[in-house]
């Protein structure tokens, strides 16, 4: 009997997927590398630790999903709804997150190096300790986001909205970028 692929199970629906994942032993690896999940409805899915590198998740609904520790490097997440998703410790390096909605998402200690967040909404999100180096952030909205300890070295932020961001002395800003008045790290 042929084993059903992880992708086939995930396409069966979030409830079936989460039940299946719950039955797997600790340390079980989820392999969804390069999967085509464009327009998929994955809200509340347990994808913690999943390998979604180079996956196509364009315009997917991933609200409140658990993607903590997941590998989403070089994934296409453009225009994806990720409101309230848990991406703590996730690898999003080189990912396309342009025009995505990450409002209220947990991106603490996530690696967003080299990612494209142009026109993305990262509002009231937790980016504490995130690696945000060499990102493209044209028109990125970071309003009210906690950037404490985040490293934004080399990140381009033209037309970005940084109102009410939370920063601290450990926040590293791009060279030649001055944080908004009243929001500069304490020196």
UniProtKB/TrEMBL annotation:
InterPro entries: 5peptide_repeat, Pentapeptide-BTB/POZ_domain. Pfam families: Pentapeptide (PF00805). PANTHER family: BTB_POZ DOMAIN-CONTAINING PROTEIN KCTD9. This is Unannotated protein. It comes from freshwater metagenome.
């Amino acid at each position: 009997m042929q084993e059903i692929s992880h992708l086939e199970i995930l396409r069966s629906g979030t409830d079936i997927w989460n039940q299946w994942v719950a039955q797997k032993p600790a340390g079980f690896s989820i392999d969804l590398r390069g999967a085509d999940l464009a327009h998929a409805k994955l809200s509340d899915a347990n994808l913690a630790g999943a390998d979604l590198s180079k996956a196509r998740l364009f315009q997917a609904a991933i609200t409140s999903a658990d993607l903590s520790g997941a590998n989403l490097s070089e994934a296409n997440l453009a225009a994806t709804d990720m409101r309230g998703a848990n991406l703590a410790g996730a690898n999003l390096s080189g990912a396309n997150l342009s025009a995505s909605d990450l409002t209220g998402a947990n991106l603490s200690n996530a690696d967003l190096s080299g990612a494209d967040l142009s026109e993305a909404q990262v509002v009231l999100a937790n980016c504490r300790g995130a690696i945000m180096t060499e990102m493209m952030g044209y028109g990125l909205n970071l309003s009210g986001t906690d950037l404490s300890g985040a490293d934004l070295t080399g990140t381009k932020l033209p037309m970005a909205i940084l109102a009410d961001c939370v920063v601290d002395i450990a926040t590293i800003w791009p060279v030649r970028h001055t944080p908004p008045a009243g929001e500069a790290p304490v020196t």
